[in-house]
Amino acid sequence: EETARLTWQKNEQAWTNTKAENNRILERRRQVVRDTKAELDQGKVVYDNTARDNGDESTTTQTALATLKVTESTYHNARQLLNEAIKTAKKTNESARAAADVAQAQYINIKQTAPNIAGLSSLQVKEAITRHRYAQSTLTAPFSGLITARPVEYGEYLAAGTDAFTVQSVDNLE
Fold first, then answer.
1. Cα–Cα dist 31/69, whole Å
2. DSSP state of 145
């Protein structure tokens, strides 16, 4: 029971650390986007002033235009990296949260099972735990029906609220 509690606490801390690190990464990426946007805006001003002062065909104007295009590319790359970082952060945050939720569920499961196994042999304890886990893993429909879809594989762990299968009532079948 103590090991399960410590595992749960460790996973909660890992989730908190993951969120904090992802927030730091995203803030750095956002700052890069802001900085490159400022450079882009400044590059546009330089190009406009150079074109106005020297004409569109001058070497100075063409150099300013080339620099502007590089800056635009850098800005778009920074935005793309930010968007990818946001997606990655969301996935890692969800994964860390799911791990903490599983550890918590295991701790609660062990805590609820522990009072029922006092005074039993180790084999009897294992059997009691197995029976308890089996009882918690059995899914039953509140009506007679047929499974029409199963989007998960046998033995796969599911998060709370995930559809395990679709059941259609036998009354509705033609």
1. 21
2. E
